[in-house]
Structure formats: C-alpha cells, structure tokens
C-alpha cells in the first residue's frame, strides 16, 4: 500500500496476496494470535481501495481464509468450545460481518463460525531443567555477572574471561538435541542462549560468531521443523532488538545472507520501513 509502484504492479501484488490468502492454512494459535492485526490491515487496505472492484475481491479472499480457520480444529487453551469463541474474536468477527455486508458479500453463517472440533490444551514446559542446560545456563550467568555485579567491559578483555567464553562456546557446540526432553526445548534454549550472548559479548569476532549461530539455527529449516508461531517469535525478536542503531546493518546483512527467504524478506521490509520512519 505504501510502495510507490505503477498501478499494474500494485494490482499484481494485491492479486498475488489474494492467491496466498486462498491457500494459507495456519495452526489455531498462529491464526488466533494474528487475527486482530491481520484484520486491521485488511480493513485499511479495503478502505484505501474504496469502490475499486479489487477491494471486494480481496475481502472475499480474506473471508475464505477466515472461514477455513474458524471452522478448523480449535485449541482449548484459548477457551474455545464448538459453540463459542473468545470475546475479542467475537468482536472482530462482528466487525468483519459489517464490512462484508457493506461490500455486498454474505455475512458469516453459524456453520462458518463453528469449529469442527477442539483439541486438548498443550502441555507447559519448563526450560533449563536438564543437567546439560543447567550447566550452560550457569556458565553464561558467570560470563555476565560476578556474583550480583554486572561485569565491566574492561573485565571482558582479560585472558580469563576470554578463555571462559571459548570454553562456553565449546560446551554449546557439544550440546545435543538428545540432552533435552524435546527438540523444541533444545531449539528455544539454544536461541535464547545466543540472544543472551549477543547482549554480553563486546563487538568483535566472538559476537559475530554468536549472531552467525543464531541465524544458522533460525534458517536451518526452523519454520519447517517447528510451529511457525514459535519460529517467527525469535526472528521478530532479533529484528526488533538488534536491527537498530549501530547493529542495524550488521543484522540486516546476516539475515539477507541467511539463505532463508522469509527471514530475508522480513529484514528487507524492516529496512524500508525504518528508512521512512
């Protein structure tokens, strides 16, 4: 919407997005968490297009996307059962109904608002409980703290601290998926550990190594192997926390060279938006 493009290219993008909406199939958590923001964007787009027939077509595609997810299996952890939805979702669906009717499209029928079934609440898990993860966690705390005192930057230039960091990297390299209860536990803990190191290590080769390891974790089939909502949370955190100030270009290059098209696209969009802001 904000890109300055010839009309034919702009319309082509809209049509491409419509086709994507027609085929998207998210898990319930990903759909539910993003619905409010997604609808706000669609509503703004439809309002901007106004009386253009493309507005109605785009809204129809969004309607199909919506019905496919609302009538799919829903999650009990969101407080759902086959005849009701969470209050905020009820408000969003009512607003969508009004906009659909305003564009001459049919409102959502009861059958289109009813989940096919509910699925059990996911089990909670607690991190840093295994012997391997506890050792790594404690070692990283020692790199950051001297007792209750934050280490000074001058301390991080001493041979002792540098050696401790090298040993910590070696221990992380030896850490295996089999050391943790699940592969997802391992993925989250390893990502969190790299994020923490980015905040601890001074600029230089070792900090570059931590960023490279984090990007490798995220681009190594992360979205294919783990729930998308779990994966994208780490990608967004990396962009929001580190793609600012002096780290901006550093992180941008790492993401665009990651080999992952989704991560590269997020970085490129953030670069454009950041320049305009």
Structure description:
The chain is mainly alpha-helical and 277 residues long. It has two domains: 7-119; 131-276. 65% of the residues lie in helices and 4% in strands. The protein contains twelve helices and four strands. The strands form two sheets. It has a two-stranded parallel sheet. The chain has a two-stranded antiparallel sheet with strand order 3-4. Strand 1, helix 4 and strand 2 (117-119) form a beta-alpha-beta unit. The longest helix is centred in the first third of the chain and has 22 residues, at 28-49. The protein is elongated.
Short characterization:
The chain is mainly alpha-helical and about 280 residues long. It contains 12 helices and 4 strands; from the N terminus they run H-H-H-E-H-E-H-E-E-H-H-H-H-H-H-H.
For the biggest sheet, the summary is: 2 strands, parallel
Low-confidence stretches are 78-85
Question: What characteristic shape results from the CA principal axes?
Answer: elongated
SS element count, helices: 12
Q: Based on helices, strands and strand pairing, what is the structural class?
A: mainly alpha
**Rg estimate, integer Å:** 23 Å
Any key phrases for this structure?
single chain, mainly alpha, two-stranded parallel ribbon, two-stranded antiparallel sheet, 65% helix
Strand-helix topology:
Blueprint: H1 7-23, H2 28-49, H3 53-70, E1 73-75, H4 87-102, E2 117-119, H5 131-144, E3 145-146, E4 149-150, H6 159-174, H7 183-200, H8 205-219, H9 222-225, H10 228-242, H11 248-256, H12 261-276
